[in-house]
Amino acid sequence: MGGNFSKDPRGSAVKKTSAPSPQSLAKKGLPGLISSICRLLSINGTAFINLDEKTLLNKAFELTGLDDLGDQSFYEAFSVLLKSIESDARLNLIGRICFRSDILRMLCNRLRLLEDRKRRPQIADQVISRPLFITGLPRTGSTLLHALLAQDPASRAPQVWEVMYPSPPPERTSYNYDSRVYKAARDLKWLDIIMPGFKRAHMIDARLPQECIAITGHSFISYLFESMYFVDSYRAWHISQDKRPAYEYHKQFLQHLQWLAPGTHWVLKAPSHLFTLETLLQVYPDARIVLTHRDPLEVLPSCSSFTEVLRGAFTDTIDRKKLGIEIARHWENGARIAVKFSQGNGNTPGHILNILYKDLVKNPMGVVRLIYRHFDMEFTTEAEAAMSRFLAQNPQNLHGVHRYSLGEFGLDGNAERGRFAFYTNFFGIEPVS
User: Fold this and answer.
1) Is residue 389 part of a domain?
2) For residue 257, is it within any domain?
3) Residue 181 sits in which domain range?
4) Which whole number is the average pLDDT over 239-258?
């Protein structure tokens, strides 16, 4: 997520000898300080941070000593994204630094993963069997459910640290104390500085499971970028693209992580999977799908507010009403896809399961048991104990309450209730208010 300000040479934006600590910068209010300086000097960072394709690629080649990026399908997406960032995103200096750092990290990961695969061809023989995907509208409890299911010692979920730094392949024998865990944890401290409201809205830790968009981002055909930046032209291009290359790369990424650190099954999550379920099932035909649901009048303001937290760190210009409309229409489309998919697959035994947010919040372990029964999975006493510990250690609103309202984003409750009636009626979602 948003900006690897690490002291590692893989895309470092700050020299090791002079970098102040996140704690010291927090006291100074880094985003506000830099924004004020930039406004005073009438600059937006363009003169300092070059984001053109050739410069970024050459820098990645230099950092890794490698030059093979594999499947050429990503180049068009990469080019469209960079053009959109420059023309649409209105990045401030922090935004340019973070975007450059993230892109370099992804490019370096692509280079290193392909080199690992060349040297260890047996990685390509890994079978990804019956992965469990959690998807649905955002802010529907999917992050909690993902983290909860990942506590099963037999399961496998991509943790934040190994998605950020996947090479060399993680090993089961050193998995819990790999030096990359601590490196990622240091990087994540910058979220407190750059996005002060992030942890109130979303659980994240180096050892928690990561969303799949952080993996598909490496293909550059991903919903990751439009969630974090205003990239209108990229989004318009992306919506009509074949997502198969992104899922093929996703599978390769899982094979890489699984090779020396396997589990009985993968537990995966991203709301954006909702838009690509047919493609997902082409790559993972035996996938198990969990769809999570919540009152849209709670989903829309929460999602709008979280998106504002994400994008607001990288630009000084946000039209909240425009953002609200973008989010509402995007997820109205997602809701229609959820209904259509459920209508077409509802009679497939053990293939799809719908979960209501209110049931998950009221009785999370009951929902877990339902999932294990529905998909004929073994629910061990060890798994139950680990999940119970996680719930006790991670109560709701641990980092504070995430507050929001429909009106803040120019949305009318009655109008949206009518627009989403097809969705709430189909899944039996009771309105909260």
Assistant:
1) yes
2) yes
3) 129-427
4) 97
